[in-house]
């Protein structure tokens, strides 16, 4: 029995599991066991997490079931009919020498092949007050908290206990910060109309420590982003590194202090903390795993990495490959192909991972997105949003049946388009 163990059920882990299971079924004379371990019982569709945070005016239940089912995809559904085992557990120890992983319940899971697909965590850069007062924006719980805060603030307007605009301070001018700021801008207009307010109901400020928001975006496209954000009422503050975060304010290194009702931290990621505790795992100074071109961990033929845990330098740019969902998917495909080749005793050379991340589609509030496609082709506005929807549908079809995909997608569209 050949045992393959995958740690983490993000985009890279899911793709590795599904592709490998499909390939291994071809080997009639080999018995195999694929196991995926994740702390949650669902795969989180992070590209739509900003939609959950800003979904205002939806009839709520105590467990937010309606919101959860739009971006939480149970592993039981994804792996239905597949020869893939799922264990919901915290990973407490990885023994590379003994080829075993220990879970929080003390259970030991052995492996012949291991895949690290643990994803990343939010980085606070040791800025005072971030851990205590800034609200992170990475998990389902983070998004639901912001959603609840929107409801609370609107109720204050309705009952007259608040007359001044609420203030949202979004720290981080990357894709995540821009998406969230834009959608909150659209949501703010809806709240103003429903609460029958004459003036603004909120101010939304986007802070970027560097000289420009969206640093990897060409200048022409950055201008389009800034124009759209400004039209939505977003205040953009570039060259504004944060020195301290308090319970209801942030302090910039310039000494300027800005008050806020909700401080949201969308800047920076770091590798999963578990990696640093694994003996003999080769790590870079930033804490990521050192990998070969085949995505094998340096020094280990039977261990692979997919997603944010890998330190993979693009030979063309000499920069680390960015942590994008489709990058993790591509790496998961390569990891699965190479593990299959090793198991099948194939004489072919293992496949090298060739990074590609030149395409991106960023929603900027409502049914409006900016799509940077192959060859630099740019599509903006409603048609950019349509392309984004097609990309989402394509991903859902890669893990679900057509009927299940349409059911999930229709639920998302009918729920999230109310504020558009």
UniProtKB/TrEMBL annotation:
> Which UniProt keywords are listed?
FAD, Flavoprotein, Oxidoreductase
Q: Name one Pfam family in it.
A: Pyr_redox_2
Cofactor names: FAD
An example molecular function term from Gene Ontology annotations: NAD(P)H dehydrogenase (quinone) activity
Its BP terms in the Gene Ontology are: aerobic electron transport chain
The FAD/NAD(P)-binding domain covers 3-332
User: What InterPro entries does its record include?
Assistant: FAD/NAD-bd_sf (IPR036188), FAD/NAD-binding_dom (IPR023753), NADH-Q_oxidoreductase (IPR051169)
Q: Does the keyword Chloroplast apply?
A: no
Family per record: Belongs to the NADH dehydrogenase family.
Spell out the protein name for this chain.
Answer: FAD/NAD(P)-binding domain-containing protein
């Amino acid at each position: 029995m050949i045992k393959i163990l995958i740690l983490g059920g993000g985009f890279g882990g899911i793709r590795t599991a599904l592709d490998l299971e499909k390939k291994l079924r071809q080997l009639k004379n080999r018995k195999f066991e694929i196991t995926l371990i994740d702390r949650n019982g669902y795969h989180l569709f992070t590209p739509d997490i900003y939609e959950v945070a800003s979904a205002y005016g939806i009839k709520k239940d105590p467990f937010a079931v309606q919101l959860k089912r739009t971006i939480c995809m149970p592993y039981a559904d994804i792996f239905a009919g597949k020869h893939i085992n799922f264990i919901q557990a915290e990973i407490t120890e990885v023994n590379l020498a003994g080829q075993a992983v220990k879970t929080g319940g003390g259970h030991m899971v052995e492996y012949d092949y291991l895949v690290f697909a643990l994803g990343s965590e939010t980085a606070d850069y040791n800025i005072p007050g971030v851990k205590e007062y800034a609200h992170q924006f990475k998990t389902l719980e983070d998004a639901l908290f912001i959603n609840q805060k929107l409801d609370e603030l609107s109720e204050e307007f309705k009952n007259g206990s608040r007359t001044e605009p609420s203030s949202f301070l979004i720290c981080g001018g990357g894709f995540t910060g821009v998406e969230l700021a834009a959608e909150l801008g659209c949501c703010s207009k809806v709240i103003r109309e429903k609460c029958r307010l004459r003036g603004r109901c909120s101010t939304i400020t986007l802070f970027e420590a560097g000289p420009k928001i969206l640093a990897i975006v060409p200048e022409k496209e950055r201008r389009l982003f800034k124009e759209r954000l400004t039209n939505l009422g977003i205040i953009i503050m570039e060259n504004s590194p944060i020195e301290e975060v308090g319970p209801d304010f942030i302090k910039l290194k310039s000494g300027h202090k800005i008050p806020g009702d909700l401080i949201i931290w969308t800047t920076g990621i770091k590798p999963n903390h578990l990696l640093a505790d694994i003996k003999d795992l080769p790590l870079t100074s930033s804490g990521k795993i050192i990998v070969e071109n085949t995505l094998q961990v340096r020094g280990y033929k039977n261990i692979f990495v997919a997603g944010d845990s890998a330190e993979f330098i693009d030979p063309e740019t000499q920069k680390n490959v960015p942590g994008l969902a489709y990058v993790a998917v591509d790496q998961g495909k390569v990891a699965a192909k190479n593990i299959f080749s090793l198991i099948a005793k194939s004489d072919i050379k293992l496949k090298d991972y060739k990074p590609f991340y030149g395409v991106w589609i960023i929603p900027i509030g409502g049914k409006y997105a900016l799509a940077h496609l192959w060859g630099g082709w740019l599509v903006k506005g409603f048609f950019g949003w349509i392309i984004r929807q097609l990309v989402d549908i394509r991903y859902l079809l890669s893990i679900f049946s057509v009927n299940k995909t349409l059911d999930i997608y229709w639920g998302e569209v009918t729920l999230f388009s109310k504020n558009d």
